Amino acid sequence: VGSVLDKYVREQTTNRTKTVTGWYTVTINDCWRVSKCSITLALKYALMPLDVQLFDFKSIGDGSKAQFFVDNILMANRLRRLNGKVALLYSNRNIEFNVETGLPADLKQPTNVLLSAMKTALLARYDEHNKTLDLTRFHTAAELKDEFCPLHVLSMLEQLLQLISNELTELRVLRISDNYICSLSAFAKCQTLPALQLLDISANRLEQVEELKHLQRLKLVQLNIEHNPLAKQPIFQIREMLPQVQFIVGCVNKQEQDGQIKTQPLPKHKIRTVPSASHAFCISFIKFYYTLFEERAQRIKLKEYYDDNAMFSLSFKVVCHKKSDIKKLHVGLDNIVQTLNQLPDYKINVADLQLDVQCYDNQLRMFTVSGSCQESTNSGWHARDFVRTFRLRGQSLSPLPQPVCWLIEYDMLSFGLAEELPEIEATNSDLNEQMQQLSAKMPELMLEAKPVAMQQEQSNATSLLPSSFETMPPLVPVAQTTIGVQSILEREIQDTLLCSDDELLIINEEVLLEPDEL
């Protein structure tokens, strides 16, 4: 039964964030000769889908009572409501709880056995490659299964920091979030951590700015204080307490000392002046990117610079037949690379491009580049103008605060013709002028008046024509230089055949058959 309940709880709490919201002491009365397994199984059934974790379960007094601890207020409140309503399996006995806020005041100092378990858990959570130590919810470590080590207790935190300073002298990133720590005075008693650059104390119970004075000896570059009551204090007070910290993460009160609130300005949809650092970064990225983008043979290398779930949007002002089957939006690394390989070769002069930076910070960088390029076609190089927007996300491959690499998260490319035909205004004078210009460029189509001699000759020839084609005399070939009845007949036949689309040329059987065959 226990395994089935554990599986159900795991499925229900897969995406649930676990946070320590307080420590509570639970005392069970009248549990003589009741095993821990029976009590745990009954609580799992009653508290579903909560993940029941009972810390430091032990018998107290003469064995008729049991005690354990829970680390969140949700479970403590449910235990209060279920007091006397939870029955042991295969029994009619109900369990009575007594839930008190906090931990016992006589919680013993760390023993040698506990210190040894703490050291084992500490080394198990240490990432030597990145010099990172993650102590999030440290009391839930598997190495502390038989011991109880809440960092909420000041003596426990002091012993742990002492172990860290002795064992991990090259530590650069320390995360002690989600431990319900109320004071940082333990940092003042431990030896200095010379290589520590990033300290994460988020999701704790730090309230006063004065607690940060215990971190003044550390050479921190970044401090994360989010989800602490301390995060609501003005940021200038935190900077005054820790002037060496460059990045403060999680502070919700951006009020500076002069009372002004500094906020990130909205992006402007026009070219504007940007800081030199952001401008240099964007220009270097564009030069590197278009070095690989200009030739299709090199575009396969761009696969390393797109995120696995990146999006690529492509649009053309005038869609060519070759690209008519290209979708407008592509998601996924393989689809993006395949789409880029379908585009022709380009020649782009980066020095002539215009740059607009919308966002530039330590985690996200977004900018737009626009200009003209030369596109390779069957008839040569064709000019196009384009606008392209990149959104890059920093990748923390190293424990340093600054990301060591950036991946393209979103790429939007829009093409258009560099030179467009001017629009024709609907005015009579302009239309007449344009028609005259077109007529001057058109080849001569014998639209001018016929000479008088030719008109006289045609009128004489017309009088000699028979009344119908049926009685037409046989044609006699003559020299081409002679203009006579035959040439006039050929001209008339040609005019008849080249009739307009609205007229129909009817040929019946009498035309196709000889008179003798009728």
Automatic annotation (TrEMBL):
Single GO molecular function: RNA binding
Coiled-coil annotation reads 421-448
Name the principal localization, coarsely classed: nucleus
A single GO BP: poly(A)+ mRNA export from nucleus
- Entry keywords, A to Z: Coiled coil, mRNA transport, Nucleus, Transport
What is one term from the GO cellular component aspect held by the record?
Answer: nucleus
Q: Which residues form the NTF2 domain?
A: 281-415
Please give the InterPro entries that the UniProt record associates with this protein: Leu-rich_rpt (IPR001611), LRR_dom_sf (IPR032675), NTF2-like_dom_sf (IPR032710), NTF2_dom (IPR002075), Nuclear_transport_factor_2_euk (IPR018222), Nucleotide-bd_a/b_plait_sf (IPR012677), NXF1/2/3/5-like_LRR (IPR057125), NXF_fam (IPR030217)
Q: Which Pfam families match?
A: LRR_NXF1-5 (PF24048), NXF_NTF2 (PF22602)
Which compartments is it annotated to reside in? Nucleus
Please give the family membership noted in the entry: Belongs to the NXF family.
Question: Mind telling me what this protein is named?
Answer: Nxf3
